[in-house]
């Protein structure tokens, strides 16, 4: 088993990364010190970045063997020369990037390379990106930068022009299902249904297949859209979708805040029920602020996942209306899809898909989610 085994359907990308890691080991031409890995959600950008880092630290055969100490420590997030910057808030801070840039100047301690990975580099604002520019342009001889974003246009042109680009594709649902069966022991039929419903997003497919709550929330969201007949139905469906998204966000962040507060108390030498001294309150306020940012991010992501599911439903409706002969995404909703397809025109379906995309844009621009989703649901009345 190699470090690249979790990259379902990314054979071309695996070949590029393997060649680059081999060139890095032998000192031959073909290794680049700054990389920009792009691809749609679920394509495996972060997985590819981590696997590449493991291959660069690999001491076994073949490169990226998955068995040597270098591969195992990178894949378990414990290698001292590989740093990963991620955020659960809506943006990556300047301070965190400055710290990463500072660490990048150090020489490797146990591995062959210092590898600096920034997940979701699109969450850096312009002034944050400018902090990174010099480090990307002239990295130390044994340092490699790997940035991950959905699209090359998500980072500044000055950053993009200094990185070697690697674009990942959406893997086939069958390949994702095979990965879930092989890696997670999921039933093949359930794995394929989940992979199709998740539109080949590996993480979402795993959640749908293994978490009954996630699967039920998706089904309720699709049933809600199917049942809209009046303005009242639209308002109720919008509120229900918002409530389910909050439940999902709470489930994902459950108990974490309590654990972090307890850990901070222990670090500061406070008993569980001891009053916080005034001099220490700033630490707890900062932690509370981080919790709120993470909660906002989780809720926004849950809204977006629900809207993507609705978009896939009407994509299936359009496939039926146009007799495209393409496989359905939501194979478990075939009857409802046929019913909707027979009750409206293809033009109406396209208009609804546009409204769903507009709702996603509005929520991304900080419009109140309930208002954006209510407007979208009104367009779904049949």
Précis, in short:
Helix content is 59%, strand content 7%. With 382 residues, the protein is an alpha/beta fold.
Task: Explain the overall architecture.
This protein is α/β, with parallel strands linked by helices and 382 residues long. Helices cover 59% and strands 7% of the residues. It has 16 helices and 5 strands. It has helices spanning 11-26, 45-57, 69-75, 94-104, 126-137, 157-160, 173-184, 188-197, 202-210, 212-226, 231-252, 256-268, 281-321, 334-343, 346-364, 369-379, and strands at 34-38, 82-85, 114-118, 143-149, 164-167. It has a 5-stranded parallel beta sheet, sandwiched between helices. Strand 2, helix 4 and strand 3 form a beta-alpha-beta unit. Helix 4 runs parallel beside helix 5 and helix 13 (281-321) crosses helix 14. The longest helix has 41 residues, at 281-321. The chain is globular and about 65 Å long.
For the biggest β-sheet, the strand order reads 2-3-4-1-5
> Count of DSSP helices?
16
Look at the structure and give the mean pLDDT: 89
Rg, Å, rounded = 23 Å
Poorly predicted sequence stretches spanning 5 or more consecutive residues: none
Percent helix = 55-70%
Largest sheet: 5 strands, parallel
Structural class: alpha/beta
């Amino acid at each position: 088993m190699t470090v690249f085994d979790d990259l379902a359907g990314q054979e071309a990308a695996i070949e590029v990364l393997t060649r680059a890691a081999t060139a890095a080991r032998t000192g031959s031409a073909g290794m680049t010190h700054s990389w920009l890995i792009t691809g749609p959600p679920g394509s495996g950008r972060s997985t590819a970045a981590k696997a590449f880092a493991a291959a660069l630290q690999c001491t076994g055969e073949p490169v990226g063997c998955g068995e040597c100490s270098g591969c195992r420590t990178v894949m378990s997030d414990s290698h001292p020369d590989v740093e990963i910057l991620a955020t659960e808030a809506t943006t990556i801070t300047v301070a965190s990037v400055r710290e990463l840039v500072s660490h990048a100047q150090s020489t490797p301690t146990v591995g062959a390379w210092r590898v600096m990975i920034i997940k979701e580099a699109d969450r850096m604002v312009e002034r944050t990106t400018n902090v990174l520019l010099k480090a990307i342009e002239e990295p130390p001889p044994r340092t490699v930068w790997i940035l991950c974003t959905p699209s090359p246009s998500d980072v500044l042109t000055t950053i993009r022009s200094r990185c070697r680009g690697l674009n990942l594709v959406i893997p086939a649902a069958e390949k994702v299902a095979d990965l879930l069966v092989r890696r997670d022991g999921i039933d093949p039929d359930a794995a394929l249904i989940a992979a199709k419903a998740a539109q080949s997003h590996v993480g979402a497919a795993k959640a749908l297949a293994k978490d009954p709550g996630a699967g039920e929330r998706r089904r309720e969201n699709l049933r809600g859209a199917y049942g809209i007949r009046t303005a009242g139905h639209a308002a109720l469906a919008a509120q229900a979708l918002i409530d389910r998204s909050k439940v999902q966000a709470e489930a994902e962040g459950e108990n974490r805040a309590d654990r972090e507060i307890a850990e901070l108390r222990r670090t500061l030498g406070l008993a569980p029920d001891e009053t916080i001294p005034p001099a220490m309150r700033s630490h707890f306020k900062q932690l509370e602020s981080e919790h709120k940012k993470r909660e906002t991010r989780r809720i926004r992501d849950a809204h977006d996942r629900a809207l993507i599911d609705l978009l896939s439903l009407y994509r299936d409706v359009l496939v039926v209306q146009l007799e495209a002969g393409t496989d359905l995404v939501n194979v478990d909703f075939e009857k409802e899809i046929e019913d909707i397809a027979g009750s409206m025109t293809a033009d109406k379906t396209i208009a609804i898909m546009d409204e769903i995309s507009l709702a996603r844009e509005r929520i991304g621009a900080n419009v109140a989610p309930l208002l954006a989703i209510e407007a979208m649901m009104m367009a779904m009345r049949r």
